[in-house]
Design brief:
By secondary structure, this protein is an alpha+beta fold. 29% of the residues lie in helices and 31% in strands. It folds into two domains: 158 residues, Deoxyribonuclease I, Chain A, CATH 3.60.10.10; 40 residues, no CATH class. Strands 2-3-4-5-10-7 form a six-stranded mixed beta sheet. This is Endonuclease/exonuclease/phosphatase.
Length: 224
């Protein structure tokens, strides 16, 4: 697993430490709005993964509501996130179903990505045998609202069987942080309707809840 997290200076209070998860509370970004950050590495054995996912809500239940979960899940959320040239394994499918169920129960959504779709691969005798999207970032709706510009980028890595996954909470660094206030009078200008229609249709590669948050963010920037 290789992950990167672009936040700058971080004031973080450790909350939980175990073999498969490290979690803490971030106080510094943004100030006055604490949120929980958890780095995860899903167990390698399918049965252990199922037990881990079932225990996860309890591990994270006492952290602040805006929650981010980031890392190598050793599981997929959608069927098109895995490919193999050999027979599939029922145990892996079962543990992935447990992962999807727990994330739904906790209210996490996939933050999407830019870059390569498959970011892990396995070879046998130099021949590609299996590949999947095992590494990702998921977050609650509260966290998405706190960081509407957050972007996940998958970066090709030649020294590991996992690509590097980078999460930038500030999105485009060239943009300043400017408060936004919607003005009702804008609706009298037909161009505002064009802006909304254009920005609403330009956000790909995101799960439904994340896509809604991102569309609202793009519309806000388009109306500025």
């Amino acid at each position: 697993m290789k992950i990167g997290f672009t936040l700058g200076y971080v004031e973080l209070e450790p909350h939980h430490l175990s073999r498969n998860i490290i979690s803490g509370i971030v106080y510094s970004d943004p100030p006055g709005s604490p949120w929980s950050f958890s780095a995860v590495h899903g167990p390698l054995v399918a049965a252990d993964r199922r037990s881990f996912w079932h225990a996860l809500p309890g591990l994270l239940s006492h952290t602040p509501a805006p929650k981010l979960l980031f890392g190598d899940f050793n599981g997929i959320l959608q069927d098109d996130e895995s490919w193999t040239s050999g027979p599939s394994h029922g145990g892996s499918a079962s543990s992935s179903a447990a992962l999807r169920e727990r994330l739904n129960i906790m209210g996490y959504v996939d933050l999407g990505y830019s870059g390569p779709h498959f970011i892990w691969n396995r070879r046998r005798g130099g021949v590609l045998f299996q590949r999947a999207r095992l590494d990702r970032a998921v977050a609650t709706g509260e966290w998405c609202s706190l960081f509407p510009k957050a972007l996940v980028r998958n970066v090709a890595e030649t020294t590991s069987d996992h690509y590097l996954v980078v999460l930038n909470t500030n999105g485009d660094r060239g943009e300043g942080v400017t408060p936004f206030r919607f003005e009702a009078m804008w609706t009298l200008d037909i161009r505002s309707h064009w802006v909304v229609r254009h920005t609403w249709s330009m956000v790909p590669h995101f799960a439904h809840a994340k896509r809604l948050v991102r569309r609202i963010g793009e519309t806000r920037r388009g109306l500025k």
